[in-house]
Structures are given as C-alpha cells and as structure tokens.
Amino acid sequence: MTSTETPLSTAGGTDRRRWFALAIVMTAAFMDLVDVTIVNIAIPSIQRESGASFSQIQWITAGYALAFAAGLITGGRLGDIHGRKRIFLVGIGGFTLASALCGLAVNPEMLVASRFLQGAMAALMVPQVLSIVHATFPAHERGKVFGLFGAVVGLGAVSGPLLGALLTEWNLFGWEWRSIFLINLPVGVAGLLLGSRFITESRAPRALKLDLVGVALVTLGLLMLLYPLIRGRELGWPVWGYVSMAGALVVLAVLVAYERRKSTRDGSPLVELSLFRVKSFAAGIAVQTVFGVALGVFFLVWTLYMQVGLGWSALKAGLTGVPFSIAVSVAAGLSVQQLVPRFGRKVLQAGALVMAAGVLLYLWESGHYGLALAPWQMALPLVVMGVGMGLIVAPLTDAILSEVPREHSGSASGLLNTVQQMGNALGLGLVSVVFFGTIGDGLRPDQMGPAFADAFRNSLGWVAAVLGVIFLLMFALPKRPAQHVEGEQAPTEREEPVLVS
C-alpha cells in the first residue's frame, strides 16, 4: 500500500464524504451518551434477574465511569500519534464487543468486568469525535457542525432513560435488560464498516511518542479522585476517601511538573500544557467542569424524584423528559448558527441564566403542587431548562476548541471530555450531601414521597446556585470564538490528512 498526502482544503472543502464521516462519529458519540444513562433505568431488572448485590450494581455503573474518565486523555493522545480514524475504529469495535459481552454476561462478575472494558473502549472512541471534526472541517463550517453536536448531546442526555425504559418494558425476545446492551451491536458494526470507508485519516503533523509515565500518573490521579466520590456515600464517607482525594491533587501536581519537563525534553507530553495558555481553552475548561457538576446533580436527583418520590414507572419518567430533549436540540442549532455569530459570549451567559430560571420554576412547581405534580405541568420548566442548556452546550465546545492548534486537537478533546466526567463525578458526590443528606434513615413507605420531594427541591436550589457561578465564569471566555469574529477569514493553515490508498 502506498500513501499520499492531500491538503485538507481539498478533502474537507469539496469532498462530501466528510458529512458521511460526521454522521458516523456523531452516531458513536450518541451511542456513548446513551450508554452512560441507559443502565440506570434498567437496574431493578438487572438486580432481579441476575441476583447482583448492591455493591455489584454500584460497580455496573461506576466501572464504566471510572474506566471512561481515566482513559480519555490517553485515548485522545493515541489518536494524535497513531491516527484518529484508526483509534476511532479500534474504539468503536471494542465498544461493540464489550456491549456483546455485557448482553451475554452469565453472572454479575462478568457484567461488571465487561462494563469496565466498555468504558475503556469508549475512552478510545469518544475523544476522536471532536478531533476528527476539528481536523476535517474548515473553521467557517465548524460552528454548524458543533451545533449538530450540541443537538446530539441534548438527545443523548434524555434518550438513554427513555430508551432503557422502552427496551426493558418491551422485553424483546425475552432478553429483559440484556437488550439495552445488545442494541449497540448493529449500530457498532455499521459504524465500523462505514467509518473505515468514509472517515479520512488524520494525525499530528510531527511524530509524537506516547508518554507512558504521564499515562500512569493521570490514570492514578483520576482514580484516586473519582473512586472515593463514586463509592463514598455507599461506604459512609470513610477517612481514607478524603485522604485519597487529597493525594490525587498531589499526584496531579507531580503530573504537571513532569509534563512540563517532558515537553521541554522531547516535545511529546501526554497533556499539552501549552493549551492552557490559550485563553479560550483555559476558561472553557473551567466552565465545562462546573457545568458538569450541575448536570451530575440534576439528572440523578430528577430520576430519583420521579421514580421514587412521585412513584412513576420508568416509562412515564422517560417520556416526561422528551420536551427537554427537543428544546436542547432546537436551541443548540440556533445558538451556533444564528445567535453566537451575532452576540458571541452573551449567548452562553444567557443560556446559564435561562437554565437557572427553568430550575427555579421547577422548584416552585414542585413546592406548589407537591406529590400531585403531573408530567404536563413539568413541561414548561423542562423546556426553559432545555433552551438554556442548548444555548450553552454547542457554542461552549466551539469556543473551547476554536483556537486550539490542530496537532493537539486529540489531547484537547481528551482533556475536554475528562473534565466533563470529573465535573459529573463531583456532582454525583454532591448529590450525597444535598439530596441524600436531607433524607432521614428508616423512613416508612408513606414518608418516602415527601422526603424525596423535599430533597429534590433542596438539590434544585444548589443547581441554580452552580448555574450562577457558571454565568460569572463565562466572563473569562473570549467575547467571540475565533472563527466568528466579523470579517475574519477562515484560517489557511491546515493539518494534512493521511489518505491511504
């Protein structure tokens, strides 16, 4: 086989294949987003059918999150080094295989191990999505593309619980909960076959080496931080958990010092620290982390409120989220295509305020109607929240990556996804305080509903406060993403893809 190099302006500017490639990587991103949440809704069925203990159930969800978060930065850098298309195909192939193993698990131990593998493969697959977009599309098209990405995020956020509820209730072929994993097989196989044909290979223009010491340090640091957060409430917040989280900060400080020296020595660090000198990236990472906290709190307590507090079925709870999903998708498309080019950063700040208004409206409705609150009454606050979230998710990604050098797009994408996962984990840890911390022990059945409703309202107050912090942090973002500055031409410096024939 021989290889030739073609300027990306040719491959990306006139080649319609890039839109097929976009559909493929967006489908993979959607598959991952759904898989993060789809398991929660099927946990009662999994526990009943497999006989899993509470600890094993915890690890079915936590195992995926840990492997995913710990591997994202490494996955992004592997794409820079070995080719984003190649690593994406390895990731989606491994994710499909792991999904099959989850669906065919003969005992809880096999299911837990398969979920770890699934998270690790997602860590290879997901960073390549934004990297491929960043390397394939010229700057003047990326706003539209990130609008589509925001719509996918919105759909994925709510589609997981809804799809999980439908698949569990339908009990396809008598598979019960197994269908939530096996449904990934045809999607994954199609993505693997079509991706090998339509995605153009790209990698960093100069040779890089994998920083194995950096891999070990970042993995250790994230595990020391996230493991106590995920298991803390179940274990009663032991002292070693706080020691581990404090130790994680030391490990991450050592990582920064090592990466600085590594960058000076051979220019191949795992974490490209120069990215934090890019104002849009550094500010956006802070916003993304805190935004992840807000989402981590809301989505978990919302599900518990509907299913335990109000006593709704999984399907009823899942359908209630449809207006939210639609609102996010519509607002995401409008924000990057029409609003951000005109108003810049103000759109994101308006999104934070609108989302906070929706949260406060939800809080008022919950208190006013109590346990008699109906799904149709939830529609208005959910639509307001969805519009606010849609105004943030798509342009935020665009703003963070707009000024990142293309040779580091994989590392930047991995960092972006990692801090989002860290924010979600911090949010889940906060749930233990703001939600479960307000629910007493030994409640009678008739006390469960009011207790969960009170805890939900307390949590919404915290979410609104976090959104206020996000509004203030957004002042550090550039007024406009680089490609949206009026009169600016799309950058001519392009990373060249490797086209293999």
Give structural notes.
The chain has a two-stranded antiparallel ribbon. The protein is mainly alpha-helical. The protein is globular, with a radius of gyration of 22 Å. Helix 2 (17-50) runs antiparallel to helix 3, helix 3 packs antiparallel against helix 4 and helix 3 packs antiparallel against helix 9 (212-235). It is 77% helix and 1% strand.
Entry keywords:
about 500 residues; mainly alpha; two-stranded antiparallel ribbon; 17 helices; 2 strands; about 75% helix; globular; disordered N terminus; disordered C terminus
Short description:
The protein is mainly α. The chain is globular and about 65 Å long.
Main beta sheet: strand number and arrangement?
2 strands, antiparallel
Average residue pLDDT: 80
Q: Write the element-wise H/E pattern from the N-terminal end onward.
A: EHHHHHHHHHHHHHHHHHE
- Trace the largest sheet across and list its strands: 1-2
Strand composition percent: under 5%
Model regions low in confidence, pLDDT < 50 over at least 5 residues: 1-14, 484-501
The SS-based structural class is mainly alpha
Helix-strand layout with pairing:
Elements: E1 3-5, H1 8-13, H2 17-50, H3 54-82, H4 84-103, H5 108-136, H6 139-170, H7 179-182, H8 184-198, H9 212-235, H10 239-266, H11 279-309, H12 314-320, H13 322-343, H14 345-369, H15 375-401, H16 409-434, H17 445-473, E2 498-500
Helix pairs in contact: 2-3, 2-5, 2-6, 2-8, 3-4, 3-5, 3-9, 3-16, 4-5, 4-8, 5-16, 6-12, 6-13, 6-15, 9-10, 9-16, 11-15, 11-16, 11-17, 13-14, 13-15, 14-15, 14-17
